[in-house]
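Quick entry, no commentary yet.
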Amino acid sequence: MLEDALRRGGIPYVIVGSVRFYERKEIKDALAYLRLVVNPADDVAFRRAIQAPGRGVGRASLTRLEELAAREGRSLLALAAAPPADVTGKPRRALEEFVALISRLVAERGEGAAARLHRPGPRRERVS
Protein backbone atom coordinates (compact mmCIF):
# COMPACT_ATOMS: atom_id res chain seq x y z
CA MET A 1 0.00 0.00 0.00
CA LEU A 2 1.25 3.45 -0.89
CA GLU A 3 0.67 4.86 2.58
CA ASP A 4 2.80 2.10 4.16
CA ALA A 5 5.62 2.68 1.69
CA LEU A 6 5.65 6.40 2.40
CA ARG A 7 5.57 5.78 6.13
CA ARG A 8 8.45 3.25 5.97
CA GLY A 9 10.47 5.62 3.82
CA GLY A 10 9.95 8.50 6.22
CA ILE A 11 8.41 10.52 3.41
CA PRO A 12 5.93 13.14 4.60
CA TYR A 13 2.51 12.88 2.98
CA VAL A 14 -1.01 14.23 3.38
CA ILE A 15 -4.22 12.23 3.07
CA VAL A 16 -6.85 14.39 1.38
CA GLY A 17 -10.52 13.64 1.91
CA SER A 18 -10.03 10.31 3.61
CA VAL A 19 -9.05 8.64 6.85
CA ARG A 20 -5.52 7.32 7.33
CA PHE A 21 -5.34 3.58 6.79
CA TYR A 22 -4.57 2.60 10.40
CA GLU A 23 -7.19 5.00 11.75
CA ARG A 24 -10.06 3.27 9.94
CA LYS A 25 -12.44 1.41 12.24
CA GLU A 26 -12.34 -1.83 10.24
CA ILE A 27 -8.52 -1.86 10.28
CA LYS A 28 -8.42 -1.23 14.03
CA ASP A 29 -10.95 -4.04 14.50
CA ALA A 30 -8.93 -6.48 12.36
CA LEU A 31 -5.73 -5.56 14.18
CA ALA A 32 -7.46 -6.20 17.51
CA TYR A 33 -8.20 -9.78 16.40
CA LEU A 34 -4.60 -10.27 15.29
CA ARG A 35 -3.23 -8.85 18.53
CA LEU A 36 -5.50 -11.15 20.52
CA VAL A 37 -4.36 -14.20 18.54
CA VAL A 38 -0.72 -13.30 19.17
CA ASN A 39 -1.30 -12.30 22.81
CA PRO A 40 -4.45 -13.77 24.38
CA ALA A 41 -3.80 -11.68 27.52
CA ASP A 42 -4.28 -8.39 25.59
CA ASP A 43 -7.39 -7.02 27.30
CA VAL A 44 -7.47 -3.86 25.17
CA ALA A 45 -7.65 -6.01 22.02
CA PHE A 46 -10.31 -8.20 23.66
CA ARG A 47 -12.53 -5.19 24.42
CA ARG A 48 -12.38 -4.05 20.79
CA ALA A 49 -12.67 -7.48 19.14
CA ILE A 50 -15.62 -8.66 21.26
CA GLN A 51 -17.62 -5.68 19.94
CA ALA A 52 -16.70 -6.12 16.24
CA PRO A 53 -19.06 -7.31 14.99
CA GLY A 54 -21.60 -6.82 17.74
CA ARG A 55 -22.35 -10.11 19.46
CA GLY A 56 -24.78 -9.14 22.17
CA VAL A 57 -22.18 -8.77 24.90
CA GLY A 58 -23.31 -5.55 26.51
CA ARG A 59 -21.70 -3.10 28.86
CA ALA A 60 -22.98 -4.91 31.98
CA SER A 61 -21.48 -8.28 30.97
CA LEU A 62 -18.19 -6.69 29.95
CA THR A 63 -18.03 -4.69 33.20
CA ARG A 64 -18.66 -7.89 35.17
CA LEU A 65 -15.78 -9.63 33.35
CA GLU A 66 -13.49 -6.63 33.90
CA GLU A 67 -14.23 -6.56 37.65
CA LEU A 68 -13.57 -10.28 37.94
CA ALA A 69 -10.38 -10.02 35.85
CA ALA A 70 -9.04 -7.27 38.12
CA ARG A 71 -9.91 -9.22 41.26
CA GLU A 72 -8.49 -12.56 40.05
CA GLY A 73 -5.58 -11.23 37.98
CA ARG A 74 -6.75 -13.10 34.87
CA SER A 75 -7.21 -11.96 31.29
CA LEU A 76 -10.64 -11.14 29.88
CA LEU A 77 -10.29 -13.89 27.29
CA ALA A 78 -9.51 -16.47 29.99
CA LEU A 79 -12.60 -15.40 31.93
CA ALA A 80 -14.74 -15.42 28.80
CA ALA A 81 -13.86 -19.10 28.33
CA ALA A 82 -15.76 -19.84 31.55
CA PRO A 83 -18.05 -16.86 32.14
CA PRO A 84 -19.28 -16.17 35.67
CA ALA A 85 -22.57 -17.80 36.58
CA ASP A 86 -24.39 -14.46 36.55
CA VAL A 87 -23.57 -13.96 32.85
CA THR A 88 -26.32 -15.96 31.17
CA GLY A 89 -28.27 -16.26 27.93
CA LYS A 90 -27.09 -14.55 24.78
CA PRO A 91 -24.04 -12.82 26.32
CA ARG A 92 -22.79 -16.14 27.73
CA ARG A 93 -23.20 -17.95 24.39
CA ALA A 94 -21.55 -15.04 22.57
CA LEU A 95 -18.54 -15.12 24.91
CA GLU A 96 -18.16 -18.88 24.53
CA GLU A 97 -18.40 -18.64 20.71
CA PHE A 98 -15.89 -15.79 20.65
CA VAL A 99 -13.41 -17.79 22.74
CA ALA A 100 -13.86 -20.75 20.38
CA LEU A 101 -13.14 -18.49 17.39
CA ILE A 102 -9.99 -17.04 18.93
CA SER A 103 -8.84 -20.50 20.04
CA ARG A 104 -9.28 -21.79 16.48
CA LEU A 105 -7.30 -18.85 15.10
CA VAL A 106 -4.52 -19.42 17.63
CA ALA A 107 -4.38 -23.10 16.63
CA GLU A 108 -4.29 -22.23 12.94
CA ARG A 109 -1.52 -19.73 13.60
CA GLY A 110 0.44 -22.55 15.22
CA GLU A 111 -0.02 -24.77 12.16
CA GLY A 112 1.73 -22.29 9.93
CA ALA A 113 0.88 -21.31 6.39
CA ALA A 114 2.43 -24.44 4.80
CA ALA A 115 0.13 -26.77 6.74
CA ARG A 116 -2.94 -24.78 5.74
CA LEU A 117 -1.97 -24.99 2.07
CA HIS A 118 -2.16 -28.78 2.26
CA ARG A 119 -5.39 -28.93 4.26
CA PRO A 120 -8.16 -30.60 2.27
CA GLY A 121 -10.80 -28.17 1.21
CA PRO A 122 -13.45 -27.77 -1.43
CA ARG A 123 -12.25 -28.69 -4.88
CA ARG A 124 -12.54 -26.04 -7.49
CA GLU A 125 -13.00 -26.80 -11.13
CA ARG A 126 -10.68 -25.00 -13.47
CA VAL A 127 -12.60 -22.78 -15.85
CA SER A 128 -11.09 -22.43 -19.32
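second:
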Amino acid sequence: MAVTYRRWDADDRVSAQWFTVLDAARKAGVSFLVTDGHRTLAEQREAYDRYLAGGPEAAFPSDRAPHVRTGRVDHAIDVNAKDGGAGRLAAWLRRRSAHATFPVPRENWHIEVPHDDLVRLAEKLADPLAGYPAKERRWIRDYDALVRLKHAGNDPADGPERRRELRRLMTNRRKSIWRAAQQSGWTRMRRGARYRSLLTRTQDNH
Protein backbone atom coordinates (compact mmCIF):
# COMPACT_ATOMS: atom_id res chain seq x y z
CA MET A 1 0.00 0.00 0.00
CA ALA A 2 1.33 3.41 -0.97
CA VAL A 3 1.40 5.79 1.98
CA THR A 4 1.48 9.56 1.69
CA TYR A 5 3.56 11.34 4.31
CA ARG A 6 3.30 14.99 5.28
CA ARG A 7 5.72 17.22 7.10
CA TRP A 8 4.33 17.90 10.57
CA ASP A 9 7.11 20.19 11.75
CA ALA A 10 10.71 20.93 10.91
CA ASP A 11 11.94 17.56 12.18
CA ASP A 12 9.05 15.12 11.85
CA ARG A 13 6.77 13.70 9.18
CA VAL A 14 3.65 11.60 9.66
CA SER A 15 1.22 9.74 7.45
CA ALA A 16 -1.52 11.85 5.85
CA GLN A 17 -4.02 10.16 8.17
CA TRP A 18 -2.03 11.05 11.26
CA PHE A 19 -1.62 14.59 9.94
CA THR A 20 -5.40 15.02 9.61
CA VAL A 21 -5.98 13.71 13.13
CA LEU A 22 -3.19 15.70 14.77
CA ASP A 23 -4.21 18.88 12.95
CA ALA A 24 -7.80 18.48 14.17
CA ALA A 25 -6.61 17.90 17.74
CA ARG A 26 -4.46 21.02 17.64
CA LYS A 27 -7.32 23.10 16.21
CA ALA A 28 -9.55 21.74 18.98
CA GLY A 29 -7.18 23.26 21.53
CA VAL A 30 -5.25 20.15 22.57
CA SER A 31 -1.71 21.18 23.52
CA PHE A 32 0.97 18.66 22.54
CA LEU A 33 4.38 18.42 20.90
CA VAL A 34 5.25 15.61 18.49
CA THR A 35 8.87 14.62 19.03
CA ASP A 36 9.04 11.75 16.53
CA GLY A 37 6.82 10.47 13.76
CA HIS A 38 7.45 8.10 10.88
CA ARG A 39 10.98 6.84 10.33
CA THR A 40 12.57 5.38 7.24
CA LEU A 41 14.32 2.07 7.67
CA ALA A 42 17.64 3.92 7.52
CA GLU A 43 16.53 6.30 10.28
CA GLN A 44 15.41 3.35 12.40
CA ARG A 45 18.80 1.73 11.90
CA GLU A 46 20.49 4.93 13.09
CA ALA A 47 18.24 5.04 16.16
CA TYR A 48 19.05 1.40 16.90
CA ASP A 49 22.79 2.03 16.54
CA ARG A 50 22.52 4.89 19.05
CA TYR A 51 20.66 2.54 21.39
CA LEU A 52 23.46 -0.03 21.16
CA ALA A 53 25.91 2.73 21.96
CA GLY A 54 24.04 3.55 25.16
CA GLY A 55 21.35 5.89 23.85
CA PRO A 56 17.55 5.72 24.19
CA GLU A 57 15.89 2.37 23.58
CA ALA A 58 14.89 1.73 19.95
CA ALA A 59 13.34 -1.20 18.11
CA PHE A 60 15.42 -3.43 15.86
CA PRO A 61 15.33 -1.96 12.32
CA SER A 62 12.72 -3.76 10.23
CA ASP A 63 9.71 -2.96 8.07
CA ARG A 64 7.54 -3.89 11.07
CA ALA A 65 9.21 -1.57 13.60
CA PRO A 66 6.53 0.66 15.17
CA HIS A 67 7.85 3.93 13.78
CA VAL A 68 8.52 2.40 10.34
CA ARG A 69 5.64 0.04 9.42
CA THR A 70 6.32 0.10 5.71
CA GLY A 71 3.15 0.41 3.64
CA ARG A 72 0.98 1.24 6.67
CA VAL A 73 -0.43 4.55 7.85
CA ASP A 74 -0.60 3.59 11.53
CA HIS A 75 3.04 4.10 12.50
CA ALA A 76 3.77 5.06 16.08
CA ILE A 77 4.32 8.64 17.14
CA ASP A 78 6.19 10.06 20.11
CA VAL A 79 4.64 12.99 21.97
CA ASN A 80 6.23 14.98 24.78
CA ALA A 81 4.95 13.53 28.06
CA LYS A 82 6.73 15.83 30.49
CA ASP A 83 4.09 18.54 30.10
CA GLY A 84 1.21 16.06 29.90
CA GLY A 85 0.82 16.47 26.15
CA ALA A 86 0.90 12.75 25.38
CA GLY A 87 -1.85 12.08 27.90
CA ARG A 88 -3.99 14.94 26.61
CA LEU A 89 -3.69 13.77 23.03
CA ALA A 90 -4.41 10.14 23.95
CA ALA A 91 -7.51 11.19 25.90
CA TRP A 92 -8.74 13.28 22.95
CA LEU A 93 -8.24 10.33 20.61
CA ARG A 94 -10.07 7.91 22.92
CA ARG A 95 -13.06 10.23 23.20
CA ARG A 96 -13.32 9.89 19.43
CA SER A 97 -13.17 6.08 19.51
CA ALA A 98 -9.53 5.92 18.43
CA HIS A 99 -8.08 3.62 21.06
CA ALA A 100 -4.71 5.21 21.73
CA THR A 101 -2.33 3.10 23.79
CA PHE A 102 1.14 3.32 25.29
CA PRO A 103 2.34 -0.22 24.49
CA VAL A 104 6.03 0.18 25.26
CA PRO A 105 6.85 -0.20 28.97
CA ARG A 106 8.30 2.92 30.58
CA GLU A 107 7.66 4.99 27.41
CA ASN A 108 4.74 7.21 28.30
CA TRP A 109 5.39 9.28 25.19
CA HIS A 110 5.08 6.46 22.61
CA ILE A 111 1.51 6.43 21.21
CA GLU A 112 -0.02 3.85 18.90
CA VAL A 113 -3.53 3.73 17.45
CA PRO A 114 -5.05 0.69 15.67
CA HIS A 115 -5.06 1.02 11.89
CA ASP A 116 -8.84 0.91 11.45
CA ASP A 117 -9.42 3.43 14.24
CA LEU A 118 -6.90 5.87 12.77
CA VAL A 119 -8.26 5.59 9.23
CA ARG A 120 -11.88 5.89 10.37
CA LEU A 121 -11.17 8.98 12.48
CA ALA A 122 -9.10 10.62 9.74
CA GLU A 123 -11.89 10.08 7.22
CA LYS A 124 -14.47 11.46 9.60
CA LEU A 125 -12.39 14.54 10.37
CA ALA A 126 -11.59 15.14 6.71
CA ASP A 127 -15.30 14.96 5.89
CA PRO A 128 -17.60 15.56 8.88
CA LEU A 129 -20.53 14.30 6.78
CA ALA A 130 -18.92 10.97 5.94
CA GLY A 131 -21.45 8.19 6.46
CA TYR A 132 -24.46 10.49 6.03
CA PRO A 133 -27.02 9.55 3.36
CA ALA A 134 -26.36 11.31 0.05
CA LYS A 135 -29.51 13.42 0.31
CA GLU A 136 -28.58 14.75 3.74
CA ARG A 137 -25.05 15.62 2.60
CA ARG A 138 -26.45 17.50 -0.38
CA TRP A 139 -29.04 19.37 1.72
CA ILE A 140 -26.50 20.41 4.34
CA ARG A 141 -23.87 21.51 1.84
CA ASP A 142 -26.39 23.41 -0.30
CA TYR A 143 -27.84 25.10 2.79
CA ASP A 144 -24.45 26.05 4.19
CA ALA A 145 -23.40 27.48 0.82
CA LEU A 146 -26.55 29.61 0.67
CA VAL A 147 -26.00 30.88 4.21
CA ARG A 148 -22.41 31.86 3.34
CA LEU A 149 -23.66 33.77 0.30
CA LYS A 150 -26.18 35.60 2.47
CA HIS A 151 -23.59 36.55 5.08
CA ALA A 152 -21.26 37.77 2.32
CA GLY A 153 -23.98 40.05 1.00
CA ASN A 154 -24.48 38.01 -2.17
CA ASP A 155 -27.81 36.36 -1.38
CA PRO A 156 -29.40 35.24 -4.67
CA ALA A 157 -32.94 36.33 -5.43
CA ASP A 158 -34.30 32.87 -4.69
CA GLY A 159 -32.00 32.38 -1.67
CA PRO A 160 -34.65 32.82 1.04
CA GLU A 161 -37.03 30.43 -0.69
CA ARG A 162 -34.35 27.80 -1.26
CA ARG A 163 -33.24 28.00 2.38
CA ARG A 164 -36.84 27.62 3.58
CA GLU A 165 -37.31 24.53 1.43
CA LEU A 166 -34.04 23.01 2.63
CA ARG A 167 -34.98 23.72 6.26
CA ARG A 168 -38.31 21.97 5.65
CA LEU A 169 -36.59 18.91 4.20
CA MET A 170 -34.00 18.81 6.99
CA THR A 171 -36.63 19.30 9.70
CA ASN A 172 -38.67 16.38 8.38
CA ARG A 173 -35.57 14.19 8.20
CA ARG A 174 -34.51 15.25 11.71
CA LYS A 175 -37.88 14.21 13.11
CA SER A 176 -37.66 10.91 11.22
CA ILE A 177 -34.25 10.23 12.74
CA TRP A 178 -35.57 11.02 16.22
CA ARG A 179 -38.45 8.56 15.80
CA ALA A 180 -36.13 5.83 14.52
CA ALA A 181 -33.76 6.41 17.44
CA GLN A 182 -36.55 5.81 19.94
CA GLN A 183 -36.98 2.34 18.44
CA SER A 184 -33.41 1.16 17.91
CA GLY A 185 -31.04 3.69 19.46
CA TRP A 186 -28.90 6.65 18.45
CA THR A 187 -25.70 4.82 17.55
CA ARG A 188 -26.98 3.10 14.42
CA MET A 189 -26.30 4.79 11.09
CA ARG A 190 -24.69 7.81 12.80
CA ARG A 191 -28.12 8.97 13.94
CA GLY A 192 -26.81 11.11 16.78
CA ALA A 193 -24.37 13.06 14.60
CA ARG A 194 -26.88 13.40 11.78
CA TYR A 195 -29.59 14.65 14.14
CA ARG A 196 -27.27 17.27 15.63
CA SER A 197 -26.16 18.44 12.18
CA LEU A 198 -29.75 18.87 11.03
CA LEU A 199 -30.88 20.41 14.31
CA THR A 200 -28.18 23.08 14.12
CA ARG A 201 -29.43 24.14 10.70
CA THR A 202 -33.14 24.08 11.49
CA GLN A 203 -33.23 25.74 14.91
CA ASP A 204 -32.52 29.24 13.65
CA ASN A 205 -34.04 31.08 10.73
CA HIS A 206 -30.97 31.92 8.64
